[in-house]
Automatic annotation (TrEMBL):
<protein>
    <submittedName>
        <fullName>Uncharacterized protein DUF3710</fullName>
    </submittedName>
</protein>
<feature type="region of interest" description="Disordered">
    <location>
        <begin position="1"/>
        <end position="65"/>
    </location>
</feature>
<dbReference type="InterPro" id="IPR022183">
    <property type="entry name" value="DUF3710"/>
</dbReference>
<feature type="compositionally biased region" description="Basic and acidic residues">
    <location>
        <begin position="9"/>
        <end position="27"/>
    </location>
</feature>
<dbReference type="Pfam" id="PF12502">
    <property type="entry name" value="DUF3710"/>
</dbReference>
Length: 236
């Protein structure tokens, strides 16, 4: 497992603001669900994953079923895919899981969502508006998880050349959570290359927990206990 310390750039800040932005009049913290709420909640419309913790076996040791425990996410261990953690340099917290395969990667982030409705439809609209504002092009399509959006943004290389950067963003609404996956590298434009990464995403388990959280708050991630020694070595 590899750990990457990242300074938050402008794009990261804008992306997280899109997920946190709420009209203050409607922004409410989700309280603990009652038993009646759980029994009457509609069944998730995720036929092939990713899964909620209540939908799968959750042993004390996730490694026994081939998963890496990151707290809010449990990531499947799959051959040929490397798991990296993105750590915010300022707060020293894990902000995302990165699944890397060759020259491509899938960034995973999980967020709290309202109990009554999903947020992916709203977020796609916000991404499209922000992309246009930055001079890019956003195109919606239907993928293995339903509606998704491809973003093409103008950028400059270190030597000053004008190029474009493409990402493919997929989203899944779950029970009181939202999982966002961003494909970068060749996987953003080549479905065959994206396939194994999206297959891994379909086996991710989201552990929302019962703690009250405002919609669009990030679900906390943590470094696995077995990997903490590696982090201490990197800090030394």
């Amino acid at each position: 497992m590899i750990f990457r310390k990242r300074k938050r750039d402008r794009g990261d800040d804008q992306g997280d603001r899109r997920l946190r932005r709420r009209d203050r009049e409607t922004d409410q913290v989700e309280t603990n669900p009652t038993q009646d709420d759980e029994e009457t909640r509609p069944a998730p419309q995720r036929r092939h994953g990713p899964y909620d913790a209540a939908e799968v076996e959750m042993p004390d040791d996730p490694a026994s079923v081939g998963r890496v425990d990151l707290g809010g996410l449990q990531i499947p261990a799959m051959e040929g895919i490397e798991l990296r953690l993105q750590i915010d340099q300022a707060s020293q917290t894990v902000v995302a899981a990165l699944l890397v395969r060759g020259d491509s990667a899938l960034e995973l982030r999980a967020f709290a969502a309202p109990r009554s409705t999903g947020i992916w439809d709203e977020i796609r609209k916000e991404i499209a508006v922000e992309t246009t504002r930055r001079g890019g092009v956003a195109t919606e399509a239907i993928g293995p998880f339903g509606p998704e959006i491809k973003v093409v943004l103008p950028t400059r290389t270190p030597d000053g050349r004008q190029v474009t950067q493409t990402s493919r963003i997929v989203g899944v609404d779950g029970p009181r959570w939202f999982l966002r996956g961003t494909l970068i590298g060749r996987a953003a434009t080549d479905p065959a290359v994206a396939g194994p990464l999206l297959h891994a995403m379909s086996h991710v388990v989201v552990v929302r927990g019962k703690a009250p959280m405002a919609p669009r708050d990030m679900i906390p991630l943590r470094i696995p206990e077995a990997a903490r020694a590696q982090v201490l070595q990197q800090r030394a």
